[in-house]
Structure formats: C-alpha cells, structure tokens
C-alpha cells in the first residue's frame, strides 16, 4: 500500500501510546480513522486530539477481549466509512512477575488481551477485507519480546511469541492464496508509552482483587517498578507512526525499530541451531 489518502484505518488500543500515534499518522496522511479502546475517558481525549488533524474520525469503545466487541467495531467502521483498508491489531497489556506467583486472573488477562484479541481481530477483519477485494494491510503489534527471551515478564514473552507465530502463519496462508491482504508484525523494543499503567484499564472481570495478598507483595511492587523503568527509559514515541507507515509502504513483514536487540535475537537462534542451552549470563552484563 503506497497511497493512504481517503482510505480507512481501524486502530485498536487507540487511546494511548502506539495506538494514538498510529491514529495521528493515519489522519495526517488523509485517512479516515476509526479509534477503538476500552478506556472511554482516555479515548475521548485522544479522539479530540486526532480530530484536530482530520474531521473524518470516529471513536468506538471496544473491549478487544470480547469477540462480539470486535465484530461491533468492524460494523461501525463499515457503517461510517463503508470499508476497511488498514487494520492495526494493536491493543495489548503487560503483567510482571514470576509465573509461579502471579494469580490465575493475571494469566487470563494477558492471554485474552494479547493473544485472543489478535486472533479475534484477524478472524473478523480478514473476511471483510477479502470480500472488498481491494489492496489491504494488517499490522499486528507484537514486541521484540516475541523474538527473544529474558528473565523478565515471562507471561509477556509468552503472549508476544504467540502473536509473532500467529502472524507468520496467517501471512503464509494469505500468500498461498494470493490474497489482496498484506501483513506486518510490529516488534518494537521499549517505547515511552502508557503500557506500564495498563492495570487501570483492565476489564471488570480482570480487576485486581485487593484482598489477594499478591498485589501487596514485594514481588508485585518490584515488577511495577521494573515496568516503569523500562518504559520511561524507552525511545520517544514520536517516531512510531512514521516508521510503521514506511514499513507498510515497503510491504515489510517484520517491523523492527530497535537494532540494539538484533544480536540477542540472533544469539537465540544460534543457540537453538547449535543445540546449546540458554545462557543467563548475557543478562548480567
């Protein structure tokens, strides 16, 4: 996809961070923009910001962990703008902590937010785009955490590896049938987003139980501190929109924006191919 003017972009997780930057970039390029997010107040503020760039913007309060909400999002997008040319399957969350300590509710929360939501988005928007028959593109937001492993945030790695694997396999399927839909998987490192505050946007069924001792534990508090640190020291967010849209223009499948992680990605593959065991020492340097 080279031309964006008057085409339609749907963005999940559009109220903050990467989703908001993608919404602004789409608007700057003359696209009609559908902004979806679960956080209604944040969405209203973000919508007003994007509305200053383009008048052709709508907002849809959406819980991406609910399939019917994703269906509703597609219907509202097509009711307003008739089609969807570009879908950013972007919404996601983070949960810190050792797998043997975190509550099951946290595992369900991150799985449904980071994996089910991506699958739901593909299931809903691929048939819609196929029926249109015009050039279309889907970008799944994963993370460099889906290409390498570390001792931190194992459930986050779990879901982002799933995202990358799903994206790769679906892309093969689309290429095999010579589909009109191109795909990309966006795998950034740390960016100065609001991801470290995602707990305030949890769906009600995943709300933190203040009576659960885990949420007053030092483990939980330390995890939040680490999340704050890595997000706050990440790269500025203002380059996100331009880099992702350039990758779409170039029909680039893997969108990597943090080259400093490439040696670690390569080392993981080399370790696997050489039959070696993962080396924890690389994270102690």
UniProtKB/TrEMBL annotation:
It comes from the Bacteria. The keyword Iron-sulfur does not apply. It holds the Pfam family adh_short. One of its GO terms (molecular function) is oxidoreductase activity, acting on the CH-OH group of donors, NAD or NADP as acceptor. Keywords: Oxidoreductase. PANTHER family: PKSB (PTHR24322), RETINOL DEHYDROGENASE 10 (PTHR24322:SF736). Belongs to the short-chain dehydrogenases/reductases (SDR) family. This is Short-subunit dehydrogenase.
């Amino acid at each position: 996809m080279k031309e964006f003017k008057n085409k339609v972009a749907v963005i999940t997780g559009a109220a903050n961070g990467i989703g908001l930057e993608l919404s602004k970039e789409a608007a700057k390029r003359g696209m009609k923009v559908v902004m979806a997010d679960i956080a209604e107040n944040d969405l209203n503020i973000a919508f007003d910001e994007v509305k200053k760039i383009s008048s052709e913007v709508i907002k849809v309060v959406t819980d991406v962990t609910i399939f019917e909400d994703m269906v509703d999002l597609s219907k509202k997008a097509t009711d307003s703008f008739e089609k969807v040319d570009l879908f950013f399957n972007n919404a996601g969350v983070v949960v810190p902590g050792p797998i043997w300590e975190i509550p099951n509710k946290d595992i369900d929360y991150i799985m449904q937010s980071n994996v089910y939501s991506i699958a739901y988005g593909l299931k809903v928007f691929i048939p819609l785009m196929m029926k249109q028959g015009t050039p279309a593109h889907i970008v799944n937001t994963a993370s460099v955490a889906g290409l390498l492993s570390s001792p931190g945030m194992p459930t986050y790695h779990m879901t982002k590896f799933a995202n990358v694997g799903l994206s790769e396999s679906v892309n093969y399927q689309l290429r095999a049938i010579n589909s009109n839909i191109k795909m990309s998987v966006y795998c950034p490192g740390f960016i100065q987003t609001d991801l470290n505050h995602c707990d305030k946007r949890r769906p009600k069924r995943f709300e933190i139980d203040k009576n659960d001792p885990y949420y007053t534990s030092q483990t939980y508090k330390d995890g939040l501190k680490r999340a704050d640190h890595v997000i706050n020291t990440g790269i500025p967010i203002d380059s996100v929109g331009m880099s992702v849209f350039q990758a779409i223009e170039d029909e680039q499948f893997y969108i990597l924006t943090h080259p400093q992680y490439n040696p670690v990605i390569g080392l993981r593959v080399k370790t696997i191919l050489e039959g070696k065991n993962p080396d924890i020492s690389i994270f102690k340097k």
